């Protein structure tokens, strides 16, 4: 083990380096205050002072007495990732995505965030493709409406009504993906330097996305009932954030479910501070019965719902959506035309509509939930043999958020497993404060292969 | 006719209002200097002074003596379009897109920027969909590689080689659309307040996109041989722009073709000022034989090629691409994962690959060029009967950039035609300086319906 104080400073140095590597950061740009950065990273001000001192010594930043710290050179305009470190070594928020998307054939991916292709509704997808081959000419060749397929928007409006959200088709905008839906909302609402709240731990790509928007992320500790409501209110008062991004139904990575009390307290605090909330619905179909929805409690006044079908239908057919007030939808539609000339592919929307509108999707989801329930039990039991224990038992979904035995460093375990052809998802990448270092997210649907447990056992002893 | 001086001030007032409506513009943000804005809009400094005075009187901006002009209130964070004007009245860079994409059934669209669905390779699309219904499971359900389908990237690399551009598959990134490809490049290279050069006239959505990036646009007068090279060099020296966005092969809207001499002068000036150039290849397949390519002359050192298949294959199957140096591609890939979790749909890429890789695409393009050549002649002759004359005779493509008779105001003609169910593309929306007010872009492939000419005749007499 390294000196814990030293490694904490090292983590802060890395966090500032990442900030310096943000696309387009100019020389002379002011860095966050010592107090502000200490709060956002969850470390003491003296740790930040030490980190800034180290970077001043390196020449990466400059101190102006009495006026703070400044970037001293133009960072690589194009670098979103840590430029100095090869991609397979830097355990940053893009690490898991990069390793999972570009895994060589034969790699095993218990760290990835989606289901195996064989668990998806293949027969329905193939039927929808054959139907599409008989569609009318304009559907196959035209751009389609700026807000996306009216039929799919009507269907999403009915699904919102089932969740107690009163949203007509004019409340719905289709996008190219769930991530792109969030990106569009961020472009419309945020400007560089704003503060955004993310769950800690939370989905790592939200951090990568916020880095692309050059905003400051503050983590809210997550509990089994949702964000810690007392800390949430304190952080709102202290940081005046512009946006909070939450998962609906099944939290990523913990599998936690929002309780009605926490939902109410979150919305009350949000109203008091005029905070906008994005609720990501992407895992909602995987929960056995509906849990509280911020969008339903709020009535879409300050909550924006986003989602996609990549976790339950197909990640290859790219289609996401935003459900929000019509005034927001109108502005987001213009923004999507300007930045993507539309975005929702009519062909993709028709495929999704063809499958969702068919009774087979409901049967697929029912079977999927049962299969995942079995897989969660089986994988939890095999992980227990290795001393790996889930933080909680999720009601649904494919993630188990587990503590490693004896405080092992998950990043080291992930590096050792990668060398043996297994992609894992180490805890720190989920954590805006870079804590959760002894946690790991496991995807139970990707863990049928016994070799995974052998590799994991060796990596833990590494 | 209105007082020309008054209307010029009015245009500048509108330009500043649009700037104030940029997403997220904060109160207290400094507006451009009088001299800078005058140069970028191509008007005299006294016109800008008059416009600023008018906005100060309205309370929209504040003057700080000796320190310039400032936004005096937070503009609507979400408004990209002119918030004060109903969408169907504001002739802004989003007008044509909005009217064309969301045209009611039965509307005629000589102003739109794409081919009718019946002109697209429908049989090949249907065959590719049926083939896809028999593809392997992962292609239909997985995210696919972060850079997009390797098969389509290899094919695009071979197409680049045909154009004299040495680019391996690691030089290629697939995106969700051509516009999204440009957006991604802008996000990586630009920061708010940077200056970008666009052709004047040029494709209107480039202006809308730059507005979303909060950069200052300077127009380069376009000639029948490309951008005016002398003005291009002067503007580079005066404004130090970060980026120039050009069309390859067939300029939108004029149909002009870049000459070898102009291409060389543009690249020489770009090198002297360290300017990056984006060359949009979207219309390239429509030209009868290849014209000079900036990317080929430059060897992808400072030129980035983008493109898509929306004009020649399908706009419903969304798939675009970037061809650039591998270091740029690596950074853009990270950025696309962060902001869209991938972006290129494997299903869409497979459809495009299935059609491009098949001899039928070449036959489709040959037939399309002949059909467009006939349509250009026929439409030019019918427009001549109305006194509407093309600025030049294009070598290919579907656009005719025409001057209206007697200096009629194209925006007024477009409003009158819209009332009769015909969407036109008035010249000013193509012009960063809001000139070209007596020009109109006509899409010859959308003008088979005789009623269009009746409506046009009435609108001209309006």
Automatic annotation (TrEMBL), chains A, B:
Superkingdom of source: Bacteria
Keywords assigned: Aminotransferase, DNA-binding, Pyridoxal phosphate, Transcription, Transcription regulation, Transferase
Presence of the UniProt keyword Lipid metabolism in the record: no
MF-aspect GO terms: DNA binding; DNA-binding transcription factor activity; pyridoxal phosphate binding; transaminase activity
Family: In the C-terminal section; belongs to the class-I pyridoxal-phosphate-dependent aminotransferase family.
PANTHER family referenced in this protein's UniProt entry, alphabetically: HTH-TYPE TRANSCRIPTIONAL REGULATORY PROTEIN GABR (PTHR46577), TRANSCRIPTIONAL REGULATORY PROTEIN (PTHR46577:SF2)
Protein name, per record: PLP-dependent aminotransferase family protein
Species: Lichenibacterium ramalinae
Organism ancestry: Bacteria, Pseudomonadati, Pseudomonadota, Alphaproteobacteria, Hyphomicrobiales
